[in-house]
Fold this protein.
Amino acid sequence: MNKHILTFAALALALTSCVRDQEPFSLDFPMLQPQNADTGAGSWKPILLGKPDDVAVAAPIAISAADYKLELHEITERQQNRTGKDEALLSYWGAGTVLRWNELLRELVAKYNLPTVANPDGTYPIPSSANPLAYPAFPFANPPYAARAYAYVSAAQYDALVSANFYRQKYRRPVPSQNLNSIVELIPVSGAYSYPSDDITAAGAAVAMMKLLFPGEQAYLEAKLDECINTMILSGTCTRSDALAGEKLGRDVAVKFISRARTDRAGAAVGTPADWKKLESDAINRGEIPWFSREIPERPPMLPLFGKVKGFLMDSLEMVNGRPVPPPSTNSDQFRKELAEVKSYSKNATREHFRIVHFWGDGVGTYTPPGHWNAIACEDFVREHFSEVRWARNLALLNMSMMDAAICCWDAKYFYFSPRPSQIDPEIKTLTGLPNFPAYTSGHSTFSGAAATLLGHIVPSRASTYNAMASEASLSRLYGAIHYRSDIEVGMSMGKMIGSKAVLRAQSDGAE
Amino acid sequence: MHSRTFPLLLALSFYATSAQAQTDNDALWMPAKNLCGGIIYQHSQWNHYWEGTRFRENLNIGTVTSNAVMAMASYGIHENLNAIVMLPWMKNQASAGTLIGQQGIQDLSVALKQYLIGKKLWGKYNLNLATVAGMSTPLTNYVADYLPLSIGMHSTNGYVRAIADVERNKWYATVTASYILRSNVRIDRAAYYTTEMNYSNVVNMPSVATMLLRIGYRRSADHYVELLTERMETIGGFDIRRNDMPFLSNNMDALRMGLAGKWALGSGGVSIMGSGMYTLAGRNMGRSTMLSLGAVYQTDFTKKTIKN
């Protein structure tokens, strides 16, 4: 065979393979070694709990008890027989349980963020929590649903960890290595006491909440919890009774959040055909062109009553009072000017605009814009070396602000029911999927304004970066030709207002 | 005129992968110091696709149409070795929905084709063997993560190919087997979901294997008509989820059949070639119909005259 072709074949395959073999990374974070153990977190202000000991935790058995000694021996035995797989689990969970459960939640959101396929008669099936595994799977984890899910999981973890910290100081059971010299701490230990385990408290709260939010994932979530518990026991940071007390505390605290979630009106957010019709006729009665679905067949609007959901940072009166002024009338010159601007972005799409639109798109099949801000926050929180309770508190503040942003934004969307640019001018083509709900205000802008404001308070050195990111996320919707400038500007200022409510809470919750 | 070069436009995968008939897939080649250049137009469209293995339509995409114009050149470096270069420009659009179409220059591919054996088997049967090694790489920073409207996958590919051709009394059968290794692709997103969450903008692209069988009648290298069938198989990758968008590393498979031919216009060195292909079965791809029409011109630098 001719040597040219052999050389060329070898070269072609070698060149290709050298840019091929790196694996997409699943965030390779270092083990969490908190700079401050936040041992006083038991006095931080909880969100739903009245007091940190609202949920009872039984006193632990004495460290002199035979059963406890058996627990210590369980750790040493497992440490001596650990495998390569155990090491991988230690480095995975050792990065932080609040972090890892947040990632798992983002994964489930992405998995469930798919709109349903139309029925043959042109209607759309609505996912049912009573039958989560049949098609269409429950839930449709769209941005408002996801914002609420992130908020409930983080908030329940935070309250549970405040309580766990309270009980750790109350019962003062020393960490396992203090009770048996042969125990090695394979994950850095935070604080002197381990009953109940903060890692497993966070995990228990997360699992209980996520089973409510993703009822088709019960087995998966319980298996992950077992993995988390076994890894933490192996790590020497807690004994089995520390872990089980934490799991129970987490689940018990979650019960309060679950009962709140069942009555926060999110279950009715889909609305009825009569509700959908009324939104349209109200807009017509105001002399405006109403939004309509551009999908074939026409899809009911996404969660039109989500604006009535009970928020965490703002009550319904504050929300109604904070409702933005109307968007430019579809009959106005201002509207025509903004429409022309959208069209020019559509006609003159640059590669850089595509990059921005797609980087921030976070549409179907993704973890949604709130998930993107969680990812951004988590990468930065890793560098801040927060304790687990501070991780949970910061994520709770972030996610409560974005849930309230979703509520305020959805309230405005359905109060004004304004058409998308491509509805008014079908020549306007979009750089990303057209969301199936009204334009004003932009959800991305509202989420991003809230997130950047709160995160800038938590990590002040990054404040200007967060603002620049929020601004780019917001503009991406204009570049993508799916929003007018009014949508993004008003959304952004509304988001910042909501973010500042989270900052106010941060300044008064005892953690600063 | 021997060389009939069509690319394996793998980048068209979702809607129109086309191991087209007349490609760097055949066992024919250019004589030494002959140059062949041409322009080929390619059209493909589909209005149904396979979402995983589920065959469906999507009223919010409608019909996806792809039009491409490709420049190609083939040169006989010496008697047994040809070099083939191809570069397509492409434009894709959907008839429904709001998504904006894409257009631009796609991937440059360069291949070397080596003649191995040509000998008589059992009396009247002639056997020809050849191998091809090639590479393709995107020339522009087009948007890849935008299926089904992106103009390509934006991976750099290396491929090897073995070709066997048996001929008797102008009837022939050609079998071509290819293996395509694809580089990682960087996308504009920071994370993406496949069957799990990937916190990365890097996408691993599974390899692709193709098998092409052609049976035809060949009056000469420039006059033939043939029936072809092609099987393309992505080795790995995942299925599109219910009602999700397609993704670069989907498990894209296809089975296609078609007809192709080439006709020399007189002895001036110009030939017309064309093909039509239809997708019979697939996975994570459009059920596309593809048509192509091209003209190539060949000159012989050894004689400084045009040789047929």
Notes: Residues 10-299 of chain B form a domain with the Porin fold (CATH 2.40.160.40). The first strand of chain B starts at residue 34 and ends at 46.
